[in-house]
Task: inverse folding
């Protein structure tokens, strides 16, 4: 014991330290100094070591952070612009608007609200309250929640029902409906014309645009061919050929049928024989129409 500046001071042996004038047990191991502060033991550990349950143990996070123990586990308190990567403080900066961390050895930015990561930096990115804003290859993109869609960088109300996708084109809502459905006043509704036609709604009414050689029958596009010289349709469920001038229907196909200028019309029978309906004073002879010459007595 001796006095310094009039104050009593104890020179304690190894493993003990002065606690208000008495040498008491105080040991932090060989890698630090043990002292008492306000009656409590405290370890002043050497560089690269930290207090772990009253003993200075190896704890190193590199030159860019402080290493501590919490509940017996090593923890790095890194300097600004650095983050813990598997026990070492490494450069990690996402700018002013986010926190930088490491996950599985890869840098990740945890950005503030209305900001998103773009090339390792948190940048302004806002799609409104109905969606999440991200950057893809440097381009802003809105991931909108159900019932909303991206309209020039803002998630706006856009719903076509469960059978289609709603988008905006030039500020106008558009429904991209699933197969077998079509847009009817902003909602995807059942609309099917079969495999040979396209179904749409016009003023609320179903309309089938059938492929060539097909026509609509009871809302389904069915094959209907009359050849190149006629138009095919179904009337009361029965096929009907409307043939052009000089043609007539035979066995479901428009074929050449011309009786000349002195006939009303031309027909073909099931054997493709020509039948002429002649003007008054004319009669069919073979395949042509001839004038009847009165027999004078």
Result:
């Amino acid at each position: 014991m001796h006095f310094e500046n009039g104050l009593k001071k104890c020179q304690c042996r190894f493993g003990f330290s002065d606690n208000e004038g008495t040498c008491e047990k105080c040991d932090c191991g060989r890698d630090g100094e043990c002292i008492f502060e306000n009656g409590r033991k405290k370890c002043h550990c050497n560089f690269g070591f930290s207090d772990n349950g009253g003993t200075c143990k190896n704890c190193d996070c590199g030159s860019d952070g402080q290493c501590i123990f919490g509940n017996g586990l090593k923890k790095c308190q890194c300097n600004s612009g650095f983050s813990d990567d598997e026990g070492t403080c490494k450069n990690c900066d996402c700018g002013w608007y986010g926190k930088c961390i490491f996950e599985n050895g890869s840098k990740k930015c945890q950005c503030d609200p209305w900001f998103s990561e773009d090339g390792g930096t948190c940048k302004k990115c806002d799609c409104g309250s109905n969606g999440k804003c991200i950057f893809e290859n440097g381009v802003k993109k809105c991931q909108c929640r159900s019932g909303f869609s991206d309209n020039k960088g803002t998630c706006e109300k856009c719903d076509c029902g469960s059978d289609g996708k709603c988008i905006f084109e030039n500020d106008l809502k558009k429904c991209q409906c699933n197969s077998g459905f079509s847009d009817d006043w902003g909602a995807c509704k059942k609309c099917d014309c079969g495999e040979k036609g396209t179904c749409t709604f016009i003023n609320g009414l179903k309309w089938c645009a059938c492929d060539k050689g097909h026509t609509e029958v009871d809302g389904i596009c069915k094959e209907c061919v009359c050849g190149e010289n006629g138009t095919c349709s179904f009337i009361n469920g029965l096929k009907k050929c409307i043939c052009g001038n000089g043609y007539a229907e035979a066995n479901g196909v428009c074929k050449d049928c011309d009786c000349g200028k002195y006939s009303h019309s031309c027909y073909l029978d099931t054997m493709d024989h020509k039948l002429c309906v002649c003007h008054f004073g004319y009669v069919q002879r073979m395949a042509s129409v001839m004038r009847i010459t009165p027999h004078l007595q």
User: Anything to note?
Assistant: Residues 293-297 have pLDDT under 50 and may be disordered. The CA atoms of residues 166 and 175 lie 5 Å apart. The radius of gyration is 47 Å.
